[in-house]
Amino acid sequence: MEDCLLKPKRQNVFPPQLQSISATIICILNPTSSINSQPTLRLNDCYGSTGTANASYNSSLTALFESLSSKASQNNSFYNDSSNIGIYSLYLCRGDVSNESCKSCVSSATQEIINRCPSSTEAIIWYDECTLRYADVNFFGKPDTRPWLIMNNVDSYNSSLTALFESLSSKASQNNSFYNDSSNIGIYSLYLCRGDVSNESCKSCVSSATQEIINRCPSSTEAIIWYDECTLRYADVNFFGKPDTRPWLIMNNVDNTTSPGQPNFYARGLLDQLIGRVNEKDRLFETDEQIVKIGDD
C-alpha cells in the first residue's frame, strides 16, 4: 500500500470563505502510539531557485539559521529574523513542548530544510514539535493563500475507519455520531497562533480551523490542522507535552476531496470552547474536556 504524494500547483483551491488562509490537514484514525526523543518530521515544501552558484544567499541563510537556533536555545518558543540581503525566516514551537524539545526541533529543522530544499528561495518544514519557514520576501504578519504539500492514502484511511467503527460496538446512532462504552470520554485540544500575527488574524485563523477540521476529518478521533498563521489539534488521548512518532494520514485540501463518514459531533463542543478562548486574545490554549456521550445506551 503506497502513499500518494501530490504537489499541487500554486493556485487557490479553497472555497471563498477560506481563501485568506491556506491549510494542511492531518486526520488520525485508530493509531498506534509511539514515543521518540527525536523531533518528528512530517512534511516540507520548496519554492524557487537561487542557482547553485549563489554563495552569498546560501551564506546569509546559514547565518540566519544560526541566529534562530541561538534564540531557540534561549527558551524562545517563537522568533523571526531577517538578513541584510533580504531573507526572512521564523520558527514556531508548540507551546506545550519542553524547551529542550523546541531547541532540538529547530536545530534539526535548520539542517533538514537545507538538505531537502537546496538552492530554494523559499521553503517551509513541519515537525510535530515545531515549524520553520524562510523566504526572499517579507511574509511576517501576512497570511499566505497558497496550498502546501499534500499527501493522501485512501486505502489506509478506509481500513482505519472500518477498524474504528468496529471498536465502537453496536451503539452508533443513525447519524453516525460517536459513542463510548463508558459514560464520559476525554477529549484534549489546543491551538497555537504565530507570534507575529494580529489578535484578529489569530481569532480568524482558529475560527476557520475549527470549521475545517470538522469538515475534513469527519470520523476521526484525532486530528491536526496547520495553517500559515495557526495550528489546531484535538485527540481522545492526552498528547500535551509529548512527542508523537505515529504515522499520520494527511488529507487532501482540494475542494472535491471526499471524506468518509458523517460530521464528528463529539468534538464540536470542545472546539466551540476554543473559539471562546481565542476571543480573549490567548495565543496558546489547551484543555481536557469531559464530553457526555450522545444518545441512549
From TrEMBL:
UniProt xrefs under PANTHER family: CYSTEINE-RICH REPEAT SECRETORY PROTEIN, PROTEIN KINASE DOMAIN-CONTAINING PROTEIN
Organism: Quercus suber
Pfam families: Stress-antifung (PF01657)
InterPro entries membership: GNK2 (IPR002902), GNK2_sf (IPR038408)
Gene that encodes the chain: CRK23_1
Protein name per Swiss-Prot or TrEMBL: Cysteine-rich receptor-like protein kinase 23
PROSITE patterns: GNK2
MF-aspect GO terms: kinase activity
Sequence ranges assigned to domain Gnk2-homologous in this UniProt record: 39-139, 142-239
Repeat is among the record's keywords: yes
Keywords: Repeat, Signal
